[in-house]
Amino acid sequence: MSKYDCLKLENQLCFPLYACAKAVTRHYKPLLDEFDLTYTQYITMMVMWERKSASVKEIGECLYLDSGTLTPLINKLESKGYIEKHRSDDDARGVVVSITEAGKKLRDKMVKVPNAMGGCVALSEKEAEELYNLLYKILKHFDDIDS
Amino acid sequence: MSKYDCLKLENQLCFPLYACAKAVTRHYKPLLDEFDLTYTQYITMMVMWERKSASVKEIGECLYLDSGTLTPLINKLESKGYIEKHRSDDDARGVVVSITEAGKKLRDKMVKVPNAMGGCVALSEKEAEELYNLLYKILKHFDDIDS
DNA sequence: ACAAAATAGATTGCATACAATTTAATTGTA
DNA sequence: TACAATTAAATTGTATGCAATCTATTTTGT
User: Fold this and answer.
1) Partner residues linked to A83 by β-bridges
2) pLDDT tens digits, B13-63
3) Is the pTM of this model over 0.70?
4) A45: Cβ under 7 Å from strand C?
5) DSSP letter string over A86-122?
6) Between chains, do B137 and A115 touch, taking CB under 8 Å as contact?
7) Chain A residues with CB-CB distance to B19 below 8 A
8) Is the CB of B99 under 7 A from strand D?
9) Structure confidence at residue B122 as a pLDDT band (50, 70, 90)
10) A48 CA to chain B: closest CA distance, Å?
11) Strand residue runs (E) in chain B
12) Distance (Å, rounded) from C-alpha A11 to C-alpha B41?
């Protein structure tokens, strides 16, 4: 009705997105606390589990994070013993991050986490897939715009 | 195939949610910079525009934020002149935040923001509504769990 | 070859988030 | 009515995010 309706919180798409993302990471916390990992550290480990080895830049591309966030985060994961850093042989500017044995073992311990979290999100298989597709549609479009 | 598949980034629902929320707030930034507001300050102003007056606690309930986040944020909005704080008459523990004339004027200037942002999100009306409903379904469920 | 442009990480600074603690005020109850 | 329990904000401490800048290297264009 009012010209101000577009500025109502309930008419925003961005707000439930923002609030929901925070709620999910907040509910991950008790699960991840057992492993002394934060959510961001957890998804960084996911990249390492899949790739075994990756540059900071590559990790950043996977996670949409820059070195300002990743550098301290990677240092923490290194001090926990899950990853190692060394300068790249090919390109002395680059840093190669690789997974350690302890990091590989962590994977076995954490296999139960996704399922435990899945129980918190009250969506059907179909709904979850719809949501997944809609979110990636937005992400892809941003990728296109930004490139 | 592997028992580790559940730990793959591409099989997570949480990750696109997390990444998408960040991407959206990141793309809000240039729009909000013109008004010298951050995204969180912007949605706080949305609450104030609607309610004219609210306690820190009430704002926190609207936005899913606690006093640790809101206290400094509200102080910044106050120093910008958009809101005012005063202790509640009813309950001296509470702080009532109310909108100023400058805050009301800001609303007129910012009416164009939601539309400008909408252009960035490549979803149809129907898709946006679906996404909206799915996100609120998750949020509502968390509300139920947490209460 | 070599100076300029580009790139990879690290660093700095600012603004969230949020748990945990503290302080002041209010409520519930024996 | 004392007084323990609760509540509202503020404070403290840790961990992101991200823009902007800096440093060391590598590429590029001539």
Assistant:
1) A99
2) 999 999 999 999 999 999 999 999 999 999 999 999 999 999 999 999 999
3) yes
4) no
5) EE-SS-TT-EEEEE-HHHHHHHHHHTTHHHHHHTTS-
6) no
7) 63-64, 135, 139
8) no
9) confident
10) 10
11) 53-55, 83-87, 95-99
12) 17
